Amino acid sequence: MADFRTHLTGGAVIAAVAAFASYSEGLSDAVQTQALFVLGTAASLLPDIDADDSKPLRGVFDMAGLVAGFMAAFALAEHFAVLELVGIWAATWLFVSWPLRLAFARLTVHRGLWHTLLMALVLALAAAIVADLLLGLDATRAWLVAGFVLLGYVTHLVLDEVASVDLMGRRLKRSFGTALKPLSLRAWPGSLMLMGLAVVLAGLAPDPQPLLALLGRAGVQTGLLAAHWPRW
After folding, report:
1. Is there a single domain that holds both residue 44 and residue 159?
2. Where does a domain end: 84, 109, 134?
3. Strand pairing partners for 172?
4. How far is CA 135 from the centre of its chain?
5. Given 140, 168, 170, 171, which residue has the most CB atoms within 10 angstroms?
6. At 172, phi and psi to the nearest 5?
7. pLDDT in tens, 155-209
8. What's the pLDDT tens digit per position in 109-164?
9. What are phi and psi of 7, to 5 degrees?
10. How many CA atoms lie within 13 A of 83 on its CB side?
11. What is the domain count for the chain?
């Protein structure tokens, strides 16, 4: 598999090219373009959070703990003093960063569900919903956010798959085929759950017309997708 530095550099390069393309097409302004670059780069590290004690795993749970701590503290702001709120924030952060992270590491297998295109799709759809409902972005920008999550995630999978080919020795390593796969057959119950979740999220996602229009401009036939897009 590719190392952390390779994933970070590769993800940043691909995200930068895509961000400049978005800016040149008028899809994002300067601030949004920079945010999309950061998002795409961060997404390129996500597949490795199923690796025990990896840098992406620690980083994701540390950040999630900080955000969850602030959300918990502000939700209880009317009932506690400032020092007590700081304690709530710290306790929430520590809980997410340590016991919750360790539990996640024990329940996941590296190059399992997280190393699939299906997981990339689910996270991209979730990102579109968050951008729409929580950030208040319009449908075009929400799908742009989803696109950068998907791009960064797939970049990681491709780099891992490329690293499994030994060009000098002209052979395939044992890891070949484990990084870039549609779904995980070994974890088929989880794959089935992800399929169902993808359908649900697609139905909750923003108006797909801007996405279909962008795909159409890229030469992708979208008639079948438009006809069967779920709406709840």
Report:
1. yes
2. 109
3. 165
4. 16
5. 140
6. -100, 135
7. 999 998 887 654 444 455 555 555 678 988 888 888 999 999 999 999 999 999 9
8. 666 788 899 999 999 999 999 999 989 999 999 999 999 999 999 999 999 888 76
9. -65, -40
10. 0
11. 2
